[in-house]
Amino acid sequence: MAFNIKQARIMGGNYWQGTIVRLRGIEPEDAEFFYQWNQETETQRSLDRIWFPSSLERQREWTAKKATKALDDDGYFFVIENPERIPVGMVHTRDCDPQNGTFSYAVALKAAHRRKGYAREAVKMILNYYFQELRYHKVTVDIYDHNLASIALHEHLGFSREGRLRQMRFAGGKYFDVLKYGLLRKEFINFHSDSA
Predict the structure, then answer these.
(1) Which of 55, 75, 118, 119 is the most exposed place for a label (fewest CB within 10 A)?
(2) Is the pLDDT of residue 138 over 90?
(3) Degrees to nearest 5, angle at CA 18 with 74 and 120
(4) Looking at the predicted structure, is the pLDDT value of residue 10 above 60?
(5) Is 28 domain-assigned?
(6) DSSP 3-state assignment of 145?
């Protein structure tokens, strides 16, 4: 069954509850989840870089700060939960520019929870919300050219490659390109008519 936010609204359901994922805000109790996830250095490398080791106490401070951060723009840090309400990943919207109607995001899943459709449904929920509720016009994402799973996900969702920044990313002793992908609101609605 495809995610259909219109049906959730009609039925009076939770906007953030899909068929296989639920999006929610970060809680202080998520510290252990993120601490364990930070041990996955390949995930770190595909998102940003391999970071210095962090303590559980520092992770507790980070999650507490995120959980109580005031909403000062449309950027938000979502936790992705699976049907058993187990945290499996995150989506972080950012670079929100309501004047021009543009935003960006990053999505990531723990290695054990990939290839189950969680990222696809979570991203569709985010896109539907920002396009249909907040009136954003365009979303862009940066994807490292070695992240083939993310490239496939975004192309499957209807994103178009809009550019390539050569050798912008250094990881594992090599330079990689950053690929720029974009999707317009009208393209999302046409491509995902079951979600509009």
Answers:
(1) 55
(2) yes
(3) 75
(4) no
(5) yes
(6) coil
